[in-house]
Task: structure prediction
Amino acid sequence: MESGGGAGFLTTVVVLIALLLPVLVLFEAWRSRRVALADDAQEATLDPVLSTAGMSRKIVFGMVVLTEAFLLLIAYGANEPFRQAEAKERQKEFAVEAAAHTYVQYCVSCHGVSGKGYLENIGLVGKPLATSALQATDPDEHKANVRMITQTLVNGRNAGAMPAWGVENGGPLNYQMINELTIMITDGRWDAVEALAKTQGVMSPTEAPITDPVAAGKLIVTQGACASCHAVSGTAAKGAVGPALDGIANRKIGGVADFNAANVKKWVANPSSLKPGSSMPPYALKDSYLDAIAAYLATLK
Ligand code: HEC
Ligand code: HEC
Result:
């Protein structure tokens, strides 16, 4: 772990000193003994501390033990930040694991397994959550993200398009669960969600085959990219850039092409192919989405 690097080095040095100290003392004791034996001198002429008597040996021994204890204490203290970082990391891992369970249960249906938004490549229904903006490491941006995500989860947003999840609002998520989700999202731990979803056989709606094309088409047209420019009465689509799509099944598309599934698909994929110079931008969508759009528009009579 990087944050433990400095502390780890300091610990190693202190522990080395602690190991060397007794060796040095023993060596010194042995040497002075040898000097004493070789010279056959009086004890009093030798190093006064090391050789006088058993008493001073005990003092030296006591000092060594004290110094050792002191050094080990320093080593322990120096290692503390490292241990704290490790504990924090472990806590985070628990939070991410719990958040993955919550997310797979409640959020995949709109935001997708990888947090890319409902219809992954065009970010419909649920906004994309696996974004670099939400994973900002700048402390201020991070704080703002945490606040925004917490508030969005507790209270919901956009008149319930994003539902309220907080227990305060009758939802299933308590403060801790929301906190865990916030950690998972700001850390960008989509790997944990993907791994869990895989073991549970959960797929993003986009990966699953479209079983109800009209419903899927309605989602795309009224809650997705089309809604910013088109209105459909009785739905969330209130865009006013292009014509309202009410009754589209009963008129020519763009005033030029018969209404049928093939022409709807051609129009959406590239309006200019049917009406050169059309002001509607082309949409590069998967064929199954185009089918779904055509199926839904056919119901607008
Ligand atoms: C019914 C569909 C739906 C479900 C289920 C859902 N969301 Fe959302 N979520 C949305 C929509 C729609 C938005 C965009 C709201 C808006 O337009 O402001 C959104 C927005 C968000 C945002 C704000 C993103 C941003 O950058 O502004 C977060 C965070 C979020 N959802 C997290 C979650 C989590 C976590 C869960 C599961 C507990 C969840 N959502 C479940 C539809 C959903
Ligand atoms: C950026 C704005 C914009 C978006 C987004 C957009 N459109 Fe359009 N759309 C237009 C405009 C402008 C026209 C009229 C263009 C013309 O007649 O040349 C139009 C026309 C149409 C028409 C023909 C309507 C009529 O009354 O003849 C259909 C159908 C249509 N759009 C479907 C879609 C679908 C489906 C989507 C989403 C995949 C979509 N549009 C997204 C701007 C948009």
The chain has a mean pLDDT of 84. Residues 221, 225-226, 228-230, 241-243, 245, 248, 253-255, 267-268, 271, 275, 278-281, 283, 293 surround heme C (ligand 2) (CB under 6 Å). The radius of gyration is 36 Å.
